[in-house]
């Protein structure tokens, strides 16, 4: 029924993902369900009124997604950050993507698929304008292969395999959110994540596309990007050959470009109301913010002004720390 090469491919995917979760995110591994039966697949197709792509069927034969949210608020709070796809946080906006079980997919799909359904085996993400039918493809169309080939490829399988690659190569990693761990989708490696060192202060920066955010409805703000800035002093803060045991952020300067045009040039004190004090060897200070753009692509660059010592007791002259340009673009794979 299923092409053997495809069975092997899906088996390798699930085995590899479970191995990564076991080593790096065991609390999420515990949320995975056992696979569904062929009878359950058939029942889902009968309920939906159409056939599922072969790769999607196989994915759910091996694993029926993650445990669904329940009626218990405390349990839902515990589960909220355990999505195996991960997410991002900026201000009070939190996204964390779980792989839904088949029965939940069926129920939610029946609500609106008659308006949006297009049998092209692509995987789509709804934007803030989903009610108007606006959706974006999550994987490159050129990679999708129809079911009648020896190795069919649908959007879901390609999407999950790309996600696994990013986990394995360190492009995305586990981060803390208060007392919980989660998979952060902010890129951690180049070219999507840029890095610059100035006088011993290291700045890493990257962004994610957030099509579901309400800001995307604003006139001239079709694309909304969240960005993550990480500040640290890996070894020592050095200025003019002098070592300082600490330095503190005073202000920021951002230049935001859309294509070749500067659309925002901003100076301000602190970051999100904070003035982080950095010392050698401590963990990165991380903060997130966002910016809208009329379209893609764009970029952000700029600088931070630091004071050696502390703002309350400066030990030298202020100095600028470079923020290397990092991209704002609609990616080939949208997570």
Automatic annotation (TrEMBL):
Q: Could you name the domain of life of the organism this protein comes from?
A: Eukaryota
Every ApaG domain range: 195-335
Q: Is this entry keyworded Hydrolase?
A: no
Q: Which UniProt keywords apply?
A: Ubl conjugation pathway
> Record's SMART domains?
SMI1_KNR4
The pathway this protein participates in, as annotated, is: Protein modification; protein ubiquitination
- Give the PANTHER family listed for this entry: F-BOX PROTEIN SKIP16
Q: What is this protein called?
A: ApaG domain-containing protein
